Request: fold
Amino acid sequence: MPKPLLEPFRIGDLLLPNRFVMAPLTRQRAAKGLVTNEIHAEYYSQRATAGLIISEASQISPKGQGYPNTPGIYSMEQIEGWKLVTDAVHAKGGRIFCQMWHVGRHSHPLLQLDGGLPVGPSAVAETGHVTTPEGKKNPVIPHALTKAEIEQTIEDYRKAARNAIEAGFDGVEIHGANGYLIEQFLNDSSNLRTDEYGGSIANKALFGLQVTAAVVAEIGAERTGIRLSPSGTNFGVRNNNPVETYAYFIEQLNDFNLAYIHLIEPFPHTIEGMDQYLKSPTQHFRPWIKTSLITSAGYNFKTAEAAVVEGFADLVAFGKDFISNPDLVLRYAQNERLNAYNTETFYGGDHRGFTDYPFINEA
Ligand SMILES: Cc1cc2nc3c(=O)[nH]c(=O)nc-3n(C[C@H](O)[C@H](O)[C@H](O)COP(=O)(O)O)c2cc1C
Reply:
């Protein structure tokens, strides 16, 4: 049987030995100072056979944090912590990008260093809840970023990208998905601005494009990817015209010649009754995207093979299956069964559910 997911593929300057991407997965196990350590090095290096690993989302600044114990990529100590991880992954022959995020309004005073308000494009609270050190809380109305603060935030992205390279990452993925800051700018329900960052599709796209430009100028397009959820509705973001919004955004991104664009497929139930959203953004946007395309969310080996063979995507990211199967690539190669994942150990805790999922030969 041919194994299409074992075909090598080049992105930027990297030759990936297969089409498997480990999706970015928040695990909330960073130590004091929001630093990664030996246990993260072990966890990621166990998964080094992935064509590409994308790290758990890492905040570019203290303001950008939206959950307890998520790692940062803004302090010297954090750079040192990440070096343990990237060295361990490289020692096992792997490749790893750093996912850089700013959660925007999806934060809370209890997560802010100064106890201040989270920030967003506009003073509109999200729906749902925020996880804080004191448990789940209702979202607060964020402070609407001033233009000077927007400039500072873009500068924070630029510095974080430099830090990631310093920490030994092979590149960065800008987190433009899942209801966080860049998507808050792109969407109508979270962006009510009347300046050049709001109103038209081009204006709503400006922040994400300026972030991309800053990161590309700092570390190079071949080391920069971006993740988008064109049919995403996380935390109540709504877009009146997602198809045109993302067509414009992707067209502008094409000019950068990024290493890749990474799209998230929606869970069908999240867009039920919202006919403006695409059921399969990957298939729709494939012809628009002039660089490599990673697709993600809800794939199994069969559907991932179909996506690659039919040409809808170059690479497929697996999330939950990579949590519970460090040797996911080998299991695919050898037609082995997968370990089941335990959702109770996804977020926070210790090595359990983190580094102790068995490899084939240990099962
Ligand atoms: C525990 C967990 C943590 C996640 N953390 C992130 C994250 O940090 N950044 C991100 O872009 N997506 C994150 N996601 C979404 C995944 O990257 C992926 O899109 C999702 O799990 C669907 O893919 P799957 O069906 O292969 O698991 C997370 C998902 C899970 C289950």
